[in-house]
Design a protein that fits this description.
The chain has 8 helices and 7 strands. It has 210 residues and is an alpha/beta fold. The protein has a single domain, classed as Metal-dependent hydrolases (TIM Barrel), CATH 3.20.20.140. It has helices at residues 24-33, 46-58, 79-89, 111-128, 140-150, 168-172, 179-184, 202-209; strands at residues 8-10, 36-42, 63-67, 94-103, 132-137, 157-161, 196-198. Helix content is 39%, strand content 19%. It binds zinc ion. Zinc ion is lined by residues 12, 14, 42, 99, 135, 160.
Length: 210
């Protein structure tokens, strides 16, 4: 591959969702034409995890799936769903457990339920030997506490920082103490180079492509 070729990987596509019902294939093709060589489509419940896997099988080598239950849907999680997610995760197109996490901003599921389901996903990731896609919004301290307590042996953590608002310049300052930098702090046994971040602020997108 030429050195000047920019390789883009969309680590958080949600391309299975209904908002793409009308033009999903066109969006995928446009992304590929624009240089997006890989997409990871994280599931948000059992049904969307299955949809993500189906999309991955329909687009081998381009789309990959995550399987999990989003914190907004945490009350729907059961051990049976956990087992079904584990079965899905045996498919080679599944590359991560998630999207799961903690969201204390919208708090659509009780805090204690979110924590229980979070830990269940960490166990699932461990059993499946897969990295995690973690949604965290206004719950950074809790996520770090749970990762330190229960996630020390996991291979990689990908984190969506939903409430991140500081500027890129602030982030890059060594003395910066932002939620993002805190999350970037290496966990015991983790290399920072293996932490992947999901950022969806439009201003950042402009910066990245300019
Ligand atoms: Zn997401």
């Amino acid at each position: 591959m030429p050195k000047d070729r920019i390789v883009l990987v969309d680590s958080h596509a949600h391309i299975d969702t209904s908002r793409f019902a009308r033009d999903r294939e066109e969006v995928i093709q446009a992304a590929v034409a624009g240089g997006v060589t890989r997409m990871v489509d994280p599931g948000c419940d059992l049904a969307s995890s299955r949809d993500a896997l189906a999309l991955a099988k329909a687009h081998p080598g381009t789309i990959f799936a995550g399987v999990g239950v989003h914190p907004h849907e945490a009350t729907t999680y059961t051990d049976e769903i956990g087992e079904q997610l584990r079965t899905l995760a045996r498919e080679p197109e599944v590359v991560a457990i998630g999207e799961f996490g903690l969201d204390h901003f919208r708090m659509l599921s009780p805090r204690n339920v979110q924590r229980e389901v979070f830990c269940a996903h960490l166990d699932l990731a461990r059993k499946c030997n897969l990295p995690c896609i973690i949604h965290v919004r206004d719950a950074h301290d809790d996520v770090m506490e749970l990762l330190r307590a229960h996630g020390r042996d996991l291979h990689m953590v990908a984190i969506y920082v939903g409430s991140f608002t500081v500027s890129l310049e602030t982030l890059l300052r060594p003395e910066s103490v932002s939620p993002l930098r805190v999350l970037c702090s290496p966990l015991p046994g983790h290399s920072p180079s293996r932490v992947m971040l999901y950022l969806k602020l439009p201003a950042w997108s402009r910066w990245i492509v300019s």
